[in-house]
Amino acid sequence: MKKLTIALTLFLSLAVLHGAPPAADVKTPVGIADLLALQKKVLAIRTKIRAATVTVKMGRGSGSGVIVSKEGLVLTAGHVSGKPGQKFKVILHDGREFDGVALGNSAKTDSGMIQIKKPKNLPIVEYIGPGLPPVGQWCMAVGNMGGWDSKRGAVFRLGRIISVSRHTIRTDCKLLGGDSGGPLFDLAGRVIGIHSRISSAPDQNYHVAMIAFHDDWEKLKGGKTIKPVGEGERGYLGINFSSSTDPKGVRVTRVGKDTAAEKAGLKPGDVITHFNGKKLFSGGGMRDLIEKTKVGDEIKLKILREKKPMELTIKLGKRP
Amino acid sequence: MKKLTAILLLIGLLPLAPAASLPSTQRTDGRAVMAAFAEAGKVANQCKVSIMDGTKVLCIGTLITDDGLIITKHSELLGARQPFRIAGNDRRLHRGRLISHDLATDLALIKVNIRYSSGIEWGSTEKLEIGHWLSAGVDARPGIRCGIVSAYTREIPKAGGALGIQMGEEGRDNGGVTVDTVTPNSPAQKAGLRRGDIIYAFDKKEILTREKLRSTVQAHPGEDVTLSVIRDEKKKDIEVTLGYFTDVFGLRERNLKMSGKVSKRRGGFGTVIQHDITMTNTDIGGPLLSLEGKLLGINIARANRVEFFAIPVERVQAFLKKNAAAIKKSGSKL
Questions:
Q1: How many CA atoms lie within 13 A of B226 on its CB side?
Q2: CB of B325 within 8 Å of any CB in chain A?
Q3: Is A180 noted as a catalytic residue in this protein?
């Protein structure tokens, strides 16, 4: 019991660190009282999240974004901000217009940033830290779909997170052209993602997870364009692994001959729990992490071998 | 560092690890969530009816009295055979006839031989705000879906009207706007407009430019109008029933292309409530309900896959009042 208490306390303290949502924001409502509790939270954040959501216009095209600093930093989608240095009109909820300029973007995650020039009295919102929000969490998508419309205002859509992967959140909030770059909020009014891609099914759309911004923050702010690492220079571990989702980790199914994995002593049946300190839940998550590496990088794996934890350091090789 | 490792390992062992993906029953429109809307669901399933032409569902309607008065969206009924076939919640097919309609709201009234109670309780939108929960009766199980008020309540300008011509020369020297080509099966062709006609007035008001003609036509979808033209140097008036842009030209705009089937008429309703409840174009005409199941409006358009409009209940009541004579004549009591 005492152990469990310690574990829970540790978990809760970590949850606070990562800004995890309260349980009520993740559960399925069972009656009107639960629905009203969710609605109360929505009403509490409504004005603030509207104020920080902006339309970004370039020529006839338009997208959305969200202001996260008094100095005028706007988070948006990489395919909206585009080439660093590109000029934008940034339109606020109250009709005020500012000049903006594209900072960096990532072609890999679709994160992007725009800087508002001569910022003045900007409304801002907070964003979550470098963690992924839980599946099932209620969330609010805001954006100026179809462009800025002062009489309509930004459009609000309530939904739930239906899945998460390394850089991406999928929700059932409905999106359409012009929403791109707009913010996805948790019910505390913090940005948890940025609208990225719409799917052919209206209720399965994609958002860049906030962690993708944290990963590349300085590069994005510094006006860099981040390209996906090419196949040739990507690090090669040399294993096959299970692609299914498993809370324990990723199971190794085969280890290739004369590969980095074999040299480091990785064996079939090992369960990889952590990759460079990051907890793994699925083969997809593992693949995303390997894709970010380069030949010669050293990675740290935590594994379970016959339920015993072990740590391995592996210098990645070249794909044969 | 060792401590952090311990914490991370503990987290890994806790049963709170994320599931692969949220089961469909748990999603916003899923059965588990919709169970919380049971009160509204009861009302929705009691009052909604399907309106059909033969076996084709045109849209749904809302039964508002205990003697078979149905309110629905008018423009979805255009061109359909009467009597309409009406599927009620008594699992029977009834025959219904249009008794009145209104261009300003696009609402229509149908009288049908249904004798069960509508279960409707009239609500009020006075205190309705962005972020409030809503639900709507839809033509799919479990008969109801949920969403929120998602934008400011406002007037939607008229839009989407189409004539079906390509415009040529324009201006005062030209005498108006020349018809370059007439689109096959368009309102223009049906009215007998020809290549070479010069359109110079719309409902007797002068039109000299392409832009003026375009914006005027777009603002009168589905309406009967008079076009004045010069043909063979003679002036002539032509009566045209304007069509809907998506019918005449198909889906040209990117956001419409990505939206699937939308309502033919998507604007010019006066004041509407905007919400984000998933609806198909045939789910329109049904009830918009509060958490307690009170009627807050009648769904009037699927504008695209994100924006859905409803006529507020107060305007529905005004429409009924305006049509009191037709309702009385049909034998219904409000």
A1: 9
A2: no
A3: yes
Q: Does residue A34 fall inside a structural domain?
A: yes
**B326 CA: distance to closest CA in chain A (Å):** 35
**Least confident range of A13-17, A108-112, A314-318, B94-98:** A13-17
The ipTM, to two decimals, is 0.82
- Domain count for chain A, please give it: 2
Mean predicted lDDT score pLDDT of chain A: 90
Identify the CATH number of the domain in which residue A65 sits: 2.40.10.120
The pTM of this model reads 0.77
B chain contacts of residue A169, beta-carbon cutoff 8 Å: none
On whether both A183 and A258 belong to a single domain, the answer is: no
Residue B238 to residue B281: CA distance in whole angstroms:
32
Q: Is the pLDDT reported for residue B12 higher than 60?
A: no
CA distance B323 to B328: 9
Q: How far apart, in whole angstroms, are the C-alpha atoms of residue A196 and residue A128?
A: 18
Tell me the pLDDT tens digit for each residue of A54-84. 999 998 789 999 999 999 999 999 999 999 9
> For residue A94, which residues of chain B lie inside 8 Å, CB to CB?
none
Per the annotation, the verdict on A207 as an active-site residue is: no
Q: How confident is the model at residue A230 (pLDDT cuts 50, 70, 90)?
A: low
Would you tell me which residues 223-262 of chain B have a C-beta closer than 8 angstroms to some C-beta of chain A?
254-255, 258-260
| A246 and A223 assigned to the same domain | no
Q: Which of residues 283-312 of A touch B (CB under 8 A)?
A: 302, 309
Domain B31-156+267-330: give its CATH code: 2.40.10.120
Of B17, B274, B306, the CB nearest to A281: B17
| Chain B neighbors of A302, CB-CB under 8 A | 5, 9
| Residue B18 pLDDT exceeds 50 | no
Per-residue confidence (pLDDT) for residue B6, from 0 to 100:
43
Q: Which of residues 264-303 of B touch A (CB under 8 A)?
A: 274, 276, 278, 291-292
Q: Which of A25, A110, A186, A288 is catalytic?
A: A110
For chain A, how far is it from start to end, CA to CA, in angstroms? 51
Domain with A257 in it: what CATH number? 2.30.42.10
The architecture that CATH gives domain B161-245 is Roll (2.30)
Alpha helices in A148-234 (DSSP H): 210-215, 217-221
What digits encode the pLDDT tens for the residues A94-152? 999 999 999 999 999 999 999 999 999 999 999 999 999 999 999 999 999 999 999 99
Would you call A79 a catalytic residue per the annotation? yes
Domain boundary among A227, A259, A282: A227
Residue A2, pLDDT above cutoff 80: no
Has residue A16 got a pLDDT over 60? no
Which pLDDT belongs to residue A229?
Answer: 67
